[in-house]
């Protein structure tokens, strides 16, 4: 989605949040599927580490660079997506079914919120392009 018109929006950031929550949902669903499997270790993606890496990428894009102010360095956001693979950790504790359901629910709310904000951003852009009053 590396278009210059998105540089002044939150769409690139929201895209990363949506991708992270999708990946995390898959991991959490796998935990539910294997909850009764002997020797299975509960897995999760760390939202804290993802948020820290995303915050770092956002701060780096705000640093003065040699190109024009309207350009956004989308390669930095690609680093966030690639870092998802390195933030997988294994928890040796026994996590209950209720805990997994709670984590899935929180993850789903974050996913829905990011999509709602992104949809709103696209509607605003569409209105601006078509010169309609919102």
Notes on the protein architecture:
The protein has one domain (10-129). The protein contains 4 helices and 2 strands, in the order αβααβα. The protein has a two-stranded antiparallel sheet with strand order 1-2. The protein is elongated and about 60 Å long. The protein is mainly α. The mean pLDDT is 77.
Keywords:
mainly alpha, 4 helices
Short description:
This protein has helices spanning 11-33, 47-62, 74-83, 97-130; strands spanning 42-45, 88-91. It has 134 residues and is mainly alpha-helical. α1 runs parallel beside α3 (74-83), α1 packs antiparallel against α4 (97-130) and α2 (47-62) packs antiparallel against α3.
Let me know the largest β-sheet: 2 strands, antiparallel
Q: Strand pairing plus helix content: what structural class?
A: mainly alpha
What's the structural domain tally? Answer: 1
Whole-number mean pLDDT: 77
Poorly predicted regions are none
Identify the strand order in the major beta sheet. Answer: 1-2
% residues in beta strands: 5-15%
Number of helices: 4
Our Rg estimate from Cα atoms comes to 18 Å
Order of helices and strands: HEHHEH
Number of DSSP strands?
2
The amount of helix comes to 55-70%
Q: Alpha-carbon distance between the termini?
A: 24 Å
Shape: elongated
Chain-wise SSE layout:
Elements: H1 11-33, E1 42-45, H2 47-62, H3 74-83, E2 88-91, H4 97-130
Antiparallel strand pairs: 1-2
């Amino acid at each position: 989605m590396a278009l210059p018109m998105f540089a002044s929006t939150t769409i690139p950031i929201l895209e990363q949040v949506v991708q992270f929550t999708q990946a995390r949902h898959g991991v959490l669903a796998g935990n539910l599927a294997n909850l009764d499997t002997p020797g299975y270790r509960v897995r999760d993606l760390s939202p804290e580490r993802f948020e820290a890496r995303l915050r770092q990428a956002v701060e780096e894009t705000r640093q003065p660079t040699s190109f024009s102010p309207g350009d956004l360095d989308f390669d930095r956001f690609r680093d966030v997506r690639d870092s998802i693979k390195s933030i997988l950790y294994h928890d040796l504790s026994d996590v209950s079914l209720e805990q997994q359901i709670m984590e899935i629910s929180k993850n789903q709310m974050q996913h829905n919120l990011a999509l709602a904000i992104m949809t709103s951003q696209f509607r605003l852009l569409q209105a601006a392009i078509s010169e309609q009053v919102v």
